[in-house]
Amino acid sequence: MFKLSILLFSLISLNSYGKINPKKELSAFGRVSIMTHYEDSDLSLEDSGSRIGLYAQKKLTKKFRAYAKGEWAFNSVNNTADLSIGNDNKYTSTDAAQTFRRRLGFVAFDLDTYGELRFGKQWSVYSDVSHYTDDFNLFGGSASGTYNLRTDGGQSGTGRVSHGVTYRNQFWGIKYGLQAKLIKNKELTLDSNSSGVTAKDSYGMMIQRAFGKFHMGIAYNQIDLEGDENAISGYDGGNSWSSVLGLKYVGDFTTIAFVYNRSKNHEIDDGTTIFDGEGQELILSYKFTEKLNFKMGYNLLADFDNDLEDNEYQREYYIVGASLKPHRDIKLFIEGRSNQSKSLDGDKGNDSAGVGAVLYF
After folding, report:
1. How many beta carbons lie within 10 A of that of residue 171, not counting itself?
2. How confident is the prediction for the chain on average, in pLDDT?
3. What b/e sequence results for 16-33 when a residue is b if at least 16 CB atoms lie within 10 Å of its CB, and e otherwise?
4. To 10 degrees, the CA torsion angle through 140, 142, 143, 144?
């Protein structure tokens, strides 16, 4: 409750702080997103990504500045009796019982032509490329290696990396990024449970280049693991790594993007078995007007060691959806997923759809 009080006090005091010193800026941002969700003959009202955040910056010199960002997800339709604030101990990507859950929290230094340094929980350099196709309202992002082990990618360093240090810059039109995860000898979390495997050093890199309307990028992330190969089903005793190749075309009305992913000791099936993944994601977006947008896409992730057609477990689905922005700060959306995934038992995944609204502030 104390944390919540501090957060609310900060939001209420934004304007007064902003007027004290014109060289300092403090602002709030966020969105409330609610949808009706249909799956397996059940219709429910759910939160679909509501969040709130604080952003502060200070000019250091004419060219250099420091800034910080904190962002918390919150459940706008939570019906539990108690207030719950997640501390991200296990880096889980979602927890229905948590009213507030930390997404981001970092300090950065923008050094103009010398690049940018960030410290804390932040988007990884890997995600700079893997996010080429992660642009749907509800689904997607399942086959790029970004959100592995049923987490937000924080412990591996491919998603919202925790304890991260990143450096980004560019030269001759080439963007590049370097990353280190400064935490050692922490037990790897597997499906929110202890695994018996120790996570050590982690590092990553990315390179991107634009050729007019065409963009291309590659990224790599590795986390050193130490443990007996019998500690986790499917684990071979080696390190965990993931690589991604991204291609994107951004036109006046049409955007097309594709990513290909290969990983080792990085993915988990619908049980608790680790596997080496091979993934593909595709998205096609067409903007009819500034307010109306249509999207369709495809995700496929399977075990690299097996034939995709014969693999016992795989994630595979088609996505189609549309969004309308009747106001700058309001978005209405509808999105459906045709689920062709296979479980360990050989069962097909459930089709689902959602209709929702988002208010930005």
Report:
1. 9
2. 87
3. eeeeeeeeebbeeebbbb
4. 80
Q: Are 342 and 313 in contact (CB under 8 A)?
A: yes
pLDDT tens digits, residue range 133-148? 999 999 999 999 999 9
Domains of the chain: 34-55+121-360 (2.40.160.10)
Beta-carbon count within 10 A of 328 CB? 8
Determine the Cα–Cα distance for residues 286 and 295; give it in Å rounded to an integer: 6
Of 80, 157, 148, which is closest to residue 123 (Cα–Cα)?
Answer: 157
Give the type of residue at 120. Answer: G
What pLDDT does 8 receive?
Answer: 42
Q: Does residue 79 have a pLDDT over 80?
A: no
Measured CA to CA, the distance from residue 88 to residue 151 in angstroms comes to 10
Residues 6+ apart with CB under 8 A from 158: 124, 126, 127, 130, 145, 146, 147, 148, 204, 221, 242, 266
**Which pair of structure tokens corresponds to residue 315?**
């994630």
Q: What share of the chain is helix, strand, coil (3-state, %, to 5)?
A: 5, 55, 35
Determine the Cα–Cα distance for residues 319 and 37; give it in Å rounded to an integer: 15
Radius of gyration of the chain (CA): 21
- Per DSSP, the residues of 183-229 read --SEEEEETTEEEEEEEEEEEEEEEEEEETTEEEEEEEEEEEEES-T
Q: What is the DSSP letter of 5?
A: H
Cα pseudo-dihedral 297, 302, 305, 311, rounded to 10? -120
Distances in Å between the Cα of 325 and the Cα atoms of 22, 29, 34, 140, 287 are 33, 18, 15, 21, 12
- pLDDT per position as a tens digit, 80-130: 545 444 444 434 444 555 678 899 999 999 999 999 999 999 999 999 999
